[in-house]
Structure prediction request, 528 residues.
Amino acid sequence: MLKVMLVDDEPFILRGLSLLIDWREQGFEIVKTASNGLDALEYLRREKVHLVLADIRMPGMTGLELVETLRKEQGAKRPYFAIMSGYNDFEYARQAICNACLDYILKPVSRADLLALLERVQKLYREAEEKKAEETRNEKAFFTRRLTSVLYGKHDPQTLDYVRERLHLHGGLRFVLLQPDGRDEKVRAMDDQALRRCQEELYAACLSFLGAANAYHCVFDATQQRGVYDVCVLYSDALAEADGCDEQAYFDRLRERVNAQTGVPVLMFIGDRVGSLETLDISVRSAIAARVVESFRMDVLQADSENGGKLCKQTLDALIQAVEQGDAGAIAQGVDGLCNALDSGVLDAQMITVNVNYLLFRLVYLAVQQDENVNQEEILRYITANTYAEGALRGGREYLNRFANEYAGYLAQLRSRNVGGVLAKIEREVRENYTQNLTLKELSRKYYINSAYLGQIFRKKYGVSFKEYLNEYRVERAAELLLHTDKKVMEIAEAVGYRDPDYFINRFIASRGCTPARFRKQARDPGA
Prediction:
């Protein structure tokens, strides 16, 4: 219902307008009547009204003065106005038009004129709501694109600021993936259209749980993988605190809500806890890795329960054994055997995926056998970055053969564990070349060690990723320059390896809690 206010100093006019039409039938509700402009103004400053019908001449404040006052105070947020008058005076009408009144209605007000006004108001509000909805959709779509770049570690200071302004961030962050549980018979029976509807219901359930104020914390189709119908929730401790619970209770409540509202069981994959938006991609990768593990496990269980030779187990096991032994010749034979089986046309697309997932799941297990403390999520990130299902097969035998040999080398490194010297060299590289564009990938090539494994052992020893370690070392050197030189902040940023001064400042604030300029000032003048 749209809310209406009637303003006239003659009671019988107010009474007549109230009875002239069935207001509720037209979609309107009279919420207030006033006998002068001052009383009307006091009410309109407190309450929201959609339409005001006001007499042009009243004691204390005229209808035109009321319109002009609200136009100055509330601007575009003021209600629509229509002026009523017993005077067919062009000057009055001109003033009404200048104050953006919808209509200038002569008394006595006819039923037809009033209905025409209400129809016009309804049309204007529908158009305004549609425009607002479209702007909201466009803004959400733009935000989602910016957030997606942050989720996958591709961002700049401007993007981070834009995303941060629209989220409620405090304390730890986690990337949470939700999707229909493919183990459920009801879900397995769904076609693509039904799964998409289920995904939309899941998105609506998450939005309902988060509330309108936190709508930007939910993203539809977060990973944009074909055949995956997911929704992501960007968790922050601020959300749990606002809900009066801890992290675990928050996730439990979220799971209960989406299961109840969608009517199907939902899987939830919770990423690693991180401390900032800049490192959110770590949580994203761990959540996706957890999902991949579950996908592998489900496919392997399915394959074990199948009969009829759909799983090329003998061929796969031969290739896995060759990888484990690091036998390049046997690897080539195993790859040929697998590709011949997959290319034979006997297997459908689903069973091809089952076979490839069986292979990848067993490769992960090989790594765990070599070192029970190995980070399985890191291994999965390495595998999924190099090959997964159709991606592995599109490149053909050569691609799969190269990957299998590289993984055999990775397993050999796990066995040797002779990496202490390499870490010492990496540490020296940082000390001597921190101003350069150092990357873990380039260093792994230089020292002939698998980049995924190098990342694991580096984090295990230093407690942070290589990128975080390098950034902290650069900030330490910058702090020394701030204390002992008079160089400008931009010069110092470049001197320690940052090409973007804004990014340098953000990294410095994250490490030291203040800007470089403030750090220097406080060090030189503690009382400042």
The first strand starts at residue 2 and ends at 7. The chain has a mean pLDDT of 82.
